Each structure stands twice: as structure tokens, then as C-alpha cells.
């Protein structure tokens, strides 16, 4: 279980949010909403251990994530709102490198198969710079089909995706949640995802 207690984020002399409390269990989804500049990305970076709250505590199974170190990082998959795809690498090369950084070694055949599942058949060996923004997003999201982690933290995963891609991501998320995974995501788009429980966290 992941818990946040009295979380506060300050940028400069401005309080982005304070008093944030939540808990999320296996099979559950939490959607983080709010206007631009409300601190959604800052909160997600805190939850995956890339930033420290100004006050409050984040706990994984009752232990502060700061004390868990690599043990916590190894159970989290984080995808930022930028795709992080390298233009001078092919789709296959991008997926193999990002997977390797996450500790998952895959060969070209496996990478190609996963990219095809993401709707990129025929584009696997193209340089990313010739792909559309939606196709680059699919390359980034392909990591989810390989992830073996317990918690997915996704910042605007639906950005630049067309209707068919959104439906595909919805299916992937629902399958993961049905297997006991946990998902925290931000999105400006309405999407109905089946989960054991869905929590809405609004930052104003």
C-alpha cells in the first residue's frame, strides 16, 4: 500500500499544495487532477522518489520511501509527461535502452513484437525523428507491456494519442489493475478505467 500524509510542496514563495492525504492499495487507481501549475507533476515526482516534499511523509507498506531507497525504486515504473524518446534512435533501439535502464533486457525480436502490440507495426526500425508525436508516445508507453513493477506512476500518458491508442492504453491499465497492480496518473482527458477502487485527488 502507498500512503501520503500531509504532503506539502513549495516552489519559490508559492505553496502549490499542502495537506494532501491519500492511500492506494493493490488493484486501485488514483487520478490526480487540477489546472496547469497546480503541482500535479511535482506530486508525481515526489511519489516516485525523485523529489522530496517540503513537509509530510510518503510510505510504502508503512515504511518511509526515503528509507527504502533502491527497494522502493525497483517496484515503481514512472513515465513523465515528456516521452523521452531519442530522435536519432529507432523505435526498437529506444525501447531496448529504456527497458535496460529499468533492468529488463530484451532482444530486437521481443522489442519489435511489443511495438507491434502498441500499433507500430512497420515503424519499428524507423528513426524516432520521423514518427508523429502520437507514435513517439506509443514507443514510450510500450515500456508498460514489459514492466514487472507493482506501482505505475504516469504523467499525462494519453497526451497526443488518438482514440484507438487511448483504448489500447485503457486495456493495458485495466489488465494490470486486475492483476493487483496500482496506478497513479494525471490526465486532462476523461477516461473510465475499471479498477477495484478509483480515487480522485484534485489539486486546486
Structure characterization notes:
The protein is an alpha/beta fold and 204 residues long. The protein has 2 domains: 1-75 and 151-204, Rossmann fold (3-Layer(aba) Sandwich), CATH 3.40.50; 86-148. Helix content is 30%, strand content 27%. The protein contains 7 helices and 9 strands. The chain has helices at 40-47, 65-68, 70-73, 91-101, 108-117, 133-141, 163-178, and strands at residues 2-11, 14-24, 28-33, 55-60, 63-64, 76-79, 151-155, 182-186, 197-202. Strands 6-7-8-3-9 form a 5-stranded parallel sheet, sandwiched between helices. The chain has a 4-stranded antiparallel sheet with strand order 2-1-4-5. The longest helix has 16 residues, at 163-178.
Please tag this protein with its features.
204 residues; alpha/beta; Rossmann fold; 5-stranded parallel sheet; 4-stranded antiparallel sheet; globular
Put the structure in a nutshell:
The chain is α/β, with parallel strands linked by helices and 204 residues long. 30% of the residues lie in helices and 27% in strands.
Amino acid at each position: 500500500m502507498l500512503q501520503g500524509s500531509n504532503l506539502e510542496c513549495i516552489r519559490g514563495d508559492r505553496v502549490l499544495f499542502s495537506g494532501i492525504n491519500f492511500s492506494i492499495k493493490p488493484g486501485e487507481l488514483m487520478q490526480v487532477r487540477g489546472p496547469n501549475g497546480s503541482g500535479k507533476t511535482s506530486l508525481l515526482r515526489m511519489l516516485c522518489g525523485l523529489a522530496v516534499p517540503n513537509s509530510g511523509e510518503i510510505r510504502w507498506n508503512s515504511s518511509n520511501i526515503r528509507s527504502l531507497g533502491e527497494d522502493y525504486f525497483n517496484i515503481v515504473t514512472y513515465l513523465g509527461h515528456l516521452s523521452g524518446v531519442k530522435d536519432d534512435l529507432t523505435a526498437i533501439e529506444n525501447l531496448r535502452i529504456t527497458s535496460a535502464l529499468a533492468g529488463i533486457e530484451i532482444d530486437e525480436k521481443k522489442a519489435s513484437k511489443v511495438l507491434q502490440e502498441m500499433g507500430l507495426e512497420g515503424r519499428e526500425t524507423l528513426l524516432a525523428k520521423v514518427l508523429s508525436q502520437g507514435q513517439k508516445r506509443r514507443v514510450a508507453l510500450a515500456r508498460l507491456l514489459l514492466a514487472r513493477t507493482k506501482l505505475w506512476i504516469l504523467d499525462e500518458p494519453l497526451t497526443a494519442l488518438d482514440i484507438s491508442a487511448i483504448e489500447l492504453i485503457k486495456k493495458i491499465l485495466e489488465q494490470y489493475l486486475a492483476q493487483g497492480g496500482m496506478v497513479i496518473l494525471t490526465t486532462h482527458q476523461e477516461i473510465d478505467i475499471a479498477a477495484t477502487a478509483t480515487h480522485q485527488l484534485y489539486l486546486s
